[in-house]
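This section describes the prediction task in plain terms. A model, or a person checking by hand, is given the sequence of a single protein chain and must write out its three-dimensional structure as a string of C-alpha cells. No templates, partner chains or ligands are provided. The sample shown here is typical of the held-out split.
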Amino acid sequence: MPLTVVVVDDEPLARERLRGLLAGQSDVQVVAEAGDGLAALQACAEHRPDLVLLDISMPGVDGLEVARHLAAFDPRPAVVFCTAYDAHALSAFEAAAIDYLMKPVRVERLVSALERAHTFVAGRASAPAPASHQPRTHLCARLRGSLRLIPLDDVHYLQAEEKYVVVHHARGEDLIEESLKSLEEEFASRFVRIHRNCLVARHELMELRRMDDGRVQAVLRHAPAPLEVSRRCVPALRETVKAL
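The expected answer:
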C-alpha cells in the first residue's frame, strides 16, 4: 500500500515543490493539501493519512499546535515538519515529529523522512500516544464530519456528560471526546475543579455564594446561572478566588 500524505504549508509554491518531490516516489500518494492549521486538521480527519508534511510557521493555528492535536487522532499520523527555521527543532520533537526537514527540502532528506514514516506506520498500532510538553491553545470539536477549533481563552467552563465533555464557550457549546481528568492535567494553570464533573476557567470566577441550605455555588462572569460546587472542592476554591 502506498504511503498516504497530506501536505500542509501556507505558501502555495512550497506545497507545489513538495508535491513535485513526492511525485518522484513510487510508494507515495498525496491525498490532500492545506494552507492553514484548521484546514490541515480537517483534511486529516477526512483522509486519515499515514504522514503529514507540516509547515511550522503559519498564521493562526501553527504547525506545532496542529501536531499536538494530531497526536490524539486514531490512527495517529506520522508528522514531519518542513520549515525554513531551525529554531523550532526542539519544540518539533517535543510535539512527537518523526523528522524535521529544512527548506528548501532536498530529495535525499525527504526520502529518509519517508522511510521513517514507513517504519512508524508499521509499528504505530503498538506505539503509545506521546505526552506533549506544551499545552494546546485550542480545543478541537468534531462537527458532523468537520472540525472546530475553540480558543482556550474563549472557554468559560468544561462539564463532563457521559463519555463526552461539553465545552461552554463564547460562541456556544460543543462536545469533545476527551476526559475531564486529562484536560485538568494539561490545563492546570487555566482551569480549576469545582465538582467531579466540572472545571471552570480561572478568569471566569467571580465569587462563591453560600445558599441557605449550606450548598455553595460558583458565580461566573458569563454563565447564565451559578454552578454547584462540591463540598470537597470548597476549601481549595476559596483560596483560588482569594488569589484572583
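For orientation: The chain has a mean pLDDT of 91.
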